[in-house]
Amino acid sequence: MFEVISNQQLATDIFELTIKAPRIAQHHRPGQFCIIRAAQHCERIPLSVADKDSGAGTITTVVQAAGHSTQEIVRFQPGDYLLDVVGPLGQPTHIGNPKYAAFIGGGFGAPAGYLMLKALKDAGAELLAIIGFRTRDLVIYEEKFHNVSDELIVTTDDGSYGHHGLVTEPLGERLANGESFDLIMVVGPVVMMAAVAEVTRPYGIKTLASLNPIMVDGTGMCGACRVTVGGQTKFACVDGPEFDAHQVDFRELSERLKMYQAGETQAYEAGPHQCKVEPRYWQVRENDG
Questions:
Q1: Are residues 117 and 57 part of one domain?
Q2: Exposed, middle or buried: residue 9 (CB in 10 Å: 0-12, 13-18, 19+)?
Q3: What pLDDT, in 10s, does the model give residues 184-205?
């Protein structure tokens, strides 16, 4: 059981939870993630670690309440206990020694880059962060990114705040004007990551995408998170989640993410799943003494 220390709503349907998880906080490295299950009847949800405090033994994650299980997670208040928090999972970000690096983030996935940027800053890199949202009301983590970046650009699709347009536009303009990056990292919707990869591809800039495929166990056993990278099958939970964005088959990834949309909608409308086997199991156990 894992205690919720705080639960703050950042924007519509987007919440930031700080959770007591000392061992995860101690061993987590930028780029790794965790899997959370709120209660027995809920799915296991993979979530990025947006921040951590090793001294306090806490991790922070940002959750979008998009379906039944994520809505259950965000209902937990300080003093409540989540059933499962498993991690750290996946491979850490390979920081290296870049002199000039950029992070491109989109939507509620943008906070996943905060610890990456901190690690790059500690490594001595100059940092540009570009974070994009649909509208001003959905802008999150702006102050945190401002504090850790040398330059921050915020974009909104509707022009209600910051740059009017997509994250690829200011990035493309800088590349066209001769700016060169040693590393670009991108986290967000699949279509956004694919677009960033196409912008950086002609320049041959190392571009890492943190992928978000469907996951079940997070150990590579189920195979649900398989992705094609450079023509080879990889498992995002153990081989990733970060891969060379120029090698990722984003079209396949997008199609796989749609596989369970109908089932997810049905489950959301039906409410919590009630297992019909479990009660019978315990009844048989009691009868057998």
A1: no
A2: exposed
A3: 999 999 999 999 999 999 999 9
